């Protein structure tokens, strides 16, 4: 097992990464001296596969868990489900010392984390991420929240878990498309922070795609360490944390205009990162050779790097980018790469330059 620490003073916590960790859940919660009553929040897909092991582990360690299952999919991240969870927690008499376990992908993590942040003004919570995306990204860093009709993640909080347990064995049942989508975030860490990680992915992505747990553990641990370092320096995104949004300004717009569901988040930010790389070549000196390496690696991961973009779709992309909550004072700012492993954030870019980058990813 690998351990990565997120250093945030008295809110610091460890991330455990390895195979078979779900069975250690109860023991680890006991070690943290968490209260007896707890709730495991999961979705229908993950619940079927993992709830039994989680509940057994908690019960054996002396906890009294209640299981709350929400439907699978992005629409579960709703205030309606927050309400459902609150009611179940109250019925099970969870109190200030109680805790919540988020067992699932990013959807469950964001929802359960938000419930934990707000129920009784905040109770402890533990993240047990079961998608690659959740293991390398959403379970670490403390952003929790739900969607409104007006847009994604519009209600939320910064609320750190007490522990993250990334059990690599759970990934065995993850659909191939979801696994590849997670690779888009893995590759992102290479581009924004770690040229060595990027080169290593170039060498052996084919093996990663087969999900062998040994090499996967190293990569997941490295991604978590990068996220932990960034979040440790800038928890609430006043500066550096913005680099995690590389490729996301355009990526979010792509998700938005194509109706959530057509592209998975990882697929949209794959195209978004290739566009951001093109933009970087034009604006911040990213060598054309690096643009090609970036595009090739996303391709090798089985991710889309181009999309159909007629004039109407482009217009919508710009409208969506202006509405993105990362826009402040009406200005769209970009994270741009100088070379693989090094980016700058808060870069103003003219609309014409964005348009030229979109040309390169449209087919
Ligand atoms: N909080 C953050 O910092 C942060 C960062 C990135 C993304 N997010 C959020 O994360 C969400 C996306 O997360 P996701 O990609 O994990 O999606 P998800 O939670 O919807 O999971 C994807 C699908 O895989 C299924 N699944 C999960 N684990 C499985 C397993 N082990 N075996 C079989 N099926 C499994 C789920 O039921 C679901 O159908 C979005 O809502 C996004 O906004 C949050
Ligand atoms: Zn992302």
Query: In CATH's first tier, which class of the largest domain applies?
Result: Mainly Alpha
N-to-C order of helices and strands: EEHEHEHEHEHEEEHHHHHHHEEH
Radius of gyration: 20 Å
Shape: globular
Main sheet makeup: 7 strands, mixed
Kindly report the name of the CATH homologous superfamily of the largest domain: Dehydroquinate synthase-like - alpha domain
Binned, the helix content reads: 40-55%
Protein structure class? alpha/beta
Q: Catalogue the unreliable spans.
A: none
CATH architecture of the largest domain: Up-down Bundle
C-alpha end-to-end distance: 44 Å
Order of strands, widest sheet? 1-2-9-6-5-3-4
How many strands? 11
Bound molecules: nicotinamide-adenine-dinucleotide, zinc ion
CATH fold-level topology of the largest domain: Dehydroquinate synthase-like, alpha domain
Total number of helices: 13
> What's the rounded overall pLDDT mean?
94
Q: What number of structural domains do the residues give?
A: 2
Structure characterization notes:
With 363 residues, the protein is an alpha/beta fold. The protein folds into two domains: 171 residues, 3-Layer(aba) Sandwich (Rossmann fold), CATH 3.40.50; 186 residues, Dehydroquinate synthase-like, alpha domain, CATH 1.20.1090.10. It has 13 helices and eleven strands. A seven-stranded mixed β-sheet has the order 1-2-9-6-5-3-4, with helices on both faces. The site of zinc ion (ZN) has 5 residues, from helix 10. Nicotinamide-adenine-dinucleotide binds next to helix 2, helix 4, helix 5 and strand 8.
